Amino acid sequence: MDIDDLKQRLVEGDAKATAALAQQGLDEGQSAQSLLDDALIPGMGVVGQLFEDGEYFVPELLLSARAMYAALDLLRPHLAAANSKPAGKAVLGTVQGDLHDIGKKLVVIMLEGNGFQVTDLGADVPPDRFVEAVAESGSQLVGLSALLTTTLPAMENTLRAIKEAHPSVSVIIGGAPVTQAYADSIGADGFGRDANAAVSLARHLVGDA
Ligand code: B1M
Fold it and tell me: Is the whole-model pTM more than 0.85?
């Protein structure tokens, strides 16, 4: 399987071909992580660039997102060895006003693969829903994702609401516009550049490093 073909099918938003090539890659012994790092994540970057250049519009973004999900469904069981020892409980979601959920989904998959019990609230999640979900699940950790510069303020509001209701809960944040400096400025307990970094951080914060 040619890794560039996989990337190209994702860019074209061809979910069937993307899934078939990802499966072929796995069958041929390529690692799920390399399919993700060398084809799928860079492919979404190309899609974003085409959008910025005015060649793609929202419908094309949606098709590529669907193709990404088709591949993620296949990669999911391979992405991290299931850890039988429970590592902790976490609540994850994309903040209010933001519909981007692929990066957050990747963090969920990696956390679950590393023994976390995760409540995935999806995208466009209001602060109160995070607060409730922490109480309902007894989670020690919350992960917030945001992909838009315009939804960064929602991240800060959400963090405040969680800390006010549950002061002992750790909150980590991530997403394309998020930086360590931003995390420090709003008082987050950590910033994960990617899904693997989020897992290390989560394990460190819940004392299971
Ligand atoms: Co939109 N979008 N989008 N989009 N979209 C971006 C983000 C954009 C950069 C595209 C561009 O202009 N180049 C741009 C944002 C510009 C900005 O704010 N600076 C943009 C825009 C403008 C918009 C709309 C406003 C477009 C419009 O309507 N005119 C609109 C907004 C809708 C809304 O949210 N209210 C919009 C809509 C959409 C779709 C819904 C069509 C679709 C999302 C579908 C879905 O997610 N189900 C979509 C898509 C697909 C994208 C791009 C092309 C791809 C995003 C993606 O999935 N990346 C994106 C361009 C880009 O990112 N280059 C773009 C792959 C994913 C694996 O990466 O999410 O970054 P990412 O996650 C990474 C890390 O960031 C990190 O880990 C992951 C990797 O391991 N991470 C975390 C993420 N969350 C984390 C949490 C953590 C730790 C790490 O801890 C808790």
Answer: yes
pLDDT digits (tens, 9 = 90+) for 25-75: 999 999 999 999 999 999 999 999 999 999 999 999 999 999 999 999 999
CATH architecture of 3-81: Orthogonal Bundle (1.10)
What is the edge-to-edge ordering of all strands in the sheet holding 170-174? Answer: 116-120, 88-94, 141-145, 170-174, 190-191
Of 81, 84, 87, 94, nearest to 155 by C-alpha is 94
Q: Is the pLDDT of residue 84 over 60?
A: no
* CATH number among 3.30.43.10, 3.40.50.280, 3.30.365.10, 1.10.357.10, domain 88-208: 3.40.50.280
Residues having CB within 6 Å of any atom of ligand 1: 41, 44-45, 47-48, 51-52, 58, 61-62, 65, 97-104, 106-107, 143-145, 147-150, 172-177, 192, 194-195, 198
As to burial, measured by CB atoms within 10 angstroms (0-12 exposed, 13-18 middle, 19+ buried), residue 108 is buried
Q: What is the pLDDT of residues 154-199, one digit of tens each?
A: 999 999 999 999 999 999 999 999 999 999 999 999 999 999 899 9
Given a contact cutoff of 8 angstroms between Cβ atoms, the answer to whether 164 and 146 are in contact is no
In the chain, where are the structural domains located?
Answer: 3-81, 88-208
Segment holding 116, helix H or strand E: strand 116-120
